[in-house]
Amino acid sequence: xxxxxxxxxxxxxxxxxxxxxxxxxxxxxxxxxxxxxxxxxxxxxxxxxxxxxxxxxxxxxxxxxxxxxxxxxxxxxxxxxxxxxxxxxxxxxxxxxxxxxxxxxxxxxxxxxxxxxxxxxxxxxxxxxxxxxxxxxxxxxxxxxxxxxxxxxxxxxxxxxxxxxxxxxxxxxxxxxxxxxxxxxxxxxxxxxxxxxxxxxxxxxxxxxxxxxxxxxxxxxxxxxxxxxxxxxxxxxxxxxxxxxxxxxxxxxxxxxxxxxxxxxxxxxxxxxxxxxxxxxxxxxxxxxxxxxxxxxxxxxxxxxxxxxxxxxxxxxxxxxxxxxxxxxxxxxxxxxxxxxxxxxxxxxxxxxxxxxxxxxxxxxxxxxxxxxxxxxxxxxxxxxxxxxxxxxxxxxxxxxxxxxxxxxxxxxxxxxxxxxxxxxxxxxxxxxxxxxxxxxxxxxxxxxxxxxxxxxxxxxxxxxxxxxxxxxxxxxxxxxxxxxxxxxxxxxxxxxxxxxxxxxxxxxxxxxxxxxxxxxxxxxxxxxxxxxxxxxxxxxxxxxxxxxxxxxxxxxxxxxxxxxxxxxxxxxxxxxxxxxxxxxxxxxxxxxxxxxxxxxxxxxxxxxxxxxxxxxxxxxxxxxxxxxxxxxxxxxxxxxxxxxxxxxxxxxxxxxxxxxxx
Length: 663
Hints:
Blueprint: H1 11-33, H2 45-60, H3 68-95, H4 99-123, H5 125-135, H6 140-172, H7 179-192, H8 198-226, H9 229-250, H10 255-267, H11 272-276, H12 283-288, H13 292-302, H14 310-336, H15 346-366, H16 371-385, H17 394-406, H18 415-429, H19 435-451, H20 458-472, H21 474-502, H22 532-548, E1 562-569, E2 572-579, H23 580-587, E3 594-596, H24 597-604, H25 608-619, E4 626-629, E5 640-643, E6 653-655
Parallel strand pairs: 2-6
Antiparallel strand pairs: 1-2, 3-5, 4-5
């Protein structure tokens, strides 16, 4: 015997006398009976180092005394024997005693296994560092987990899954359960996958989804037969929140989408049509009764489904369309009952505006402004806004409504109210298919307001045009902007021309507004004999203008002019607010002249289509400043005219309107 040879530890000596007695037997005793040490430690440093050193020595001895392979094998057999002989019988004994009892035992045994696996790995750590790496074997920890999977998990997973599902259903029914217990057992399913969720997904999640589907299929049938749509959706929203919280409390986060999808399919998707069309409480009824909170909940829930909002949007579109058609039908009923069919109907437009404002608000508030509902609103309004009733178009009514807002003496509104009203009209206008017709009518009315000084606010005119521009583009409003620009330029030129007129000491306060051909509507051109005083002023302006704008050609439009004429009837003097044509006609009666129709036509050089409405305005209207013989409401070529010496009015300033010659 070589005295220098180190002490050799045989397999049985090292295992039986050191490792088994001082490590494995003590570890199993602690796991089965609890820790009796007053130090609170399972193994002290000295005990641990002693066992570790034994394993180390046995693994570092030269062959044939290197016992690494045998120790790796006995490590696995030790865990396997403990699981098979101690853990599995204990679990089987609890399996028949109820879900919670089984899960508590499984929790206890899983916790013990983790402790055992940890200490076994520490004792045999040298195997992991060299032998396991060199031979590409599972690590000690992995091997221990695989043994638990093969001998415990595979044997008990059906019962443990059933126990978890039982507790989940118990909680769904309002019962109190130990969520921590479920969470720990769920972690077992996750850990068994050793880096993936395959075991959790196949063995727990899949049965859970099947169980959830069955549970909510039953609930769906109960609720749909007993609850109104709002009541049903309140319950649906509640359980969806509970299922989301359930995942947060004890399931793996990866289950959330799948679990909620199952619930959504069962309680929403499969009964959507039934819920939306439910008699007395469906979507249409909620819209009809302004049930905002219920509609918002309906939107929230069905937006979870792919294409879940489409049926709701269809109902919303049909409902709004029916409401709009009712407004159109009411206008038709008024006409049928004898109302006059005029070119303006503010109450009709106001009804459309109110309807649009209301359901635009519903779309924004109850349906979060979702594009599919915006389209539903648009399609509904396009359908009935373009239904013309009577001899006038809705485009005319909208333009006339704007005219009431923008002209002086129209609607009494604040600046903010004017802008708000115009915004609403432009929103309604956006649904018109005849936008060009609206533009033509609006341009004519704008021209009248501007030329007759009837515009309440130049700023409001600009605001309206800018809104139309945003809606339809620059081309749509370019002529309107040109009209405003003409007046702005004209205001600058007026002061300059006024200085020029002072040099000529004219008795007439004469001013001219230059309009750019192409911007303004086409007006009827009238040839009339101009009085000398006026003609002189016109020549002065033409000379002044031609020097400034040599490339421009002036063409006079007498039908657009206005005049303020001082007139005396008896002892009373009045300021007559009249057109240029009316002023020229009145001048012909100065000095008490009496003129026949034919004489007047020759003096004024006017044709019948112009002269008759002109004289009608002066002799047949509210303010008869000209007497007609014989008296009557129509102008005949045999009539005779003279200034009305008996004319009297309570107001000093008298406005005498004249029918448009362009009508």
